[in-house]
Design a protein that fits this description.
Radius of gyration: 23 Å
CATH topology of the largest domain: Butyryl-CoA Dehydrogenase, subunit A, domain 2
Number of strands: 8
Distance between the termini: 25 Å
Structural class: alpha+beta
Shape: globular
Number of helices: 3
Strand content: 25-35%
Bound molecules: flavin-adenine dinucleotide
CATH architecture of the largest domain: Beta Barrel
């Protein structure tokens, strides 16, 4: 998802990426985005960017944003060709090293309008609301993984615990009480997430 720009982070109304309509019903997008998770990689044949930009007649602020689908490769008469979207660099950050966070440049990139003109935020949040729930579930998964590793450490060291390991176990044990046992708290979390997802999707 390509929202953030150097001058527009929390305040998306400052977004400057421009989208010009073409005679073929497509759009040409130009602008800069930053902090884009998975903006460039070679794990998949194509990357489909969801980009917030502004049409020439757009009102000011966040009400003037439209959403465009901008693929890394677009189909042409001669086959698939590279679109005008490039990665300018990978952001340097502490931790989260397995996820490339990229600066992206759109240079008259071919895009397709998604939803209504100037209805970009509404359209983007269809995806983002679901993504938020998925990130929450990722957190539950991390807690479960941490719990399993801590349990395993306790099992492995329980028989002949040295004083160092014993101190570690004393750190770990409080987190293994039933009230905060991840599987116990994870089940309601998964259930709530499922219900919220059903509500969003009208299920
Ligand atoms: C690892 C990582 C991955 C990311 N991936 C993506 C991505 O895939 N796509 C994408 O578009 N963006 C992505 N981002 C950008 C992320 O969405 C922004 O970091 C976020 O929008 C906040 O911007 P900022 O960090 O510049 O904070 P700022 O906008 O500078 O805000 C800093 C603080 O000030 C507060 N603040 C700002 N403005 C106001 C105001 N007017 N009134 C009161 N408080 C205010 C904010 O709440 C915040 O606490 C990513 C960021 C990171 C770190």
């Amino acid at each position: 998802m390509c929202l953030t720009e150097p001058q527009a982070a929390t305040d998306l109304g400052q977004i400057r990426t421009r989208a010009l309509g073409d005679s073929d019903g497509l759009y040409r997008l130009s602008g800069e985005k930053m902090f884009i998770t998975g903006g460039e990689h070679d794990l998949t044949e194509n990357i489909v960017h969801l980009v917030l930009g502004r049409l020439p007649d757009a009102p000011r602020g966040s009400r003037g944003l439209s959403l465009f689908l901008v693929p890394k490769y677009v189909r042409s008469a001669t086959g698939m060709q590279r679109n005008g979207v490039t990665c300018d660099g990978i952001e340097k950050k502490m931790g989260l090293t397995a996820s490339p966070t990229c600066s992206m440049r759109f240079d008259e990139a071919t895009g397709y309008l998604i939803g209504q003109a100037h209805g970009g935020l509404r359209a983007m949040f269809v995806m983002m609301n679901a993504a938020r729930l998925q990130v929450a579930m990722q957190g539950v998964g991390h807690a479960e993984s941490a719990h399993q590793r801590a349990s395993s450490l306790c099992r492995r060291t329980g028989a002949n615990a040295t004083s160092v390991v014993y101190r570690r176990r004393r750190c770990v044990r409080p987190h293994l009480t039933p009230s905060c046992h991840p599987p116990c708290s994870a089940r309601p979390s998964v259930h709530c997430r499922r219900r919220a997802n059903d509500r969003i999707l009208g299920g």
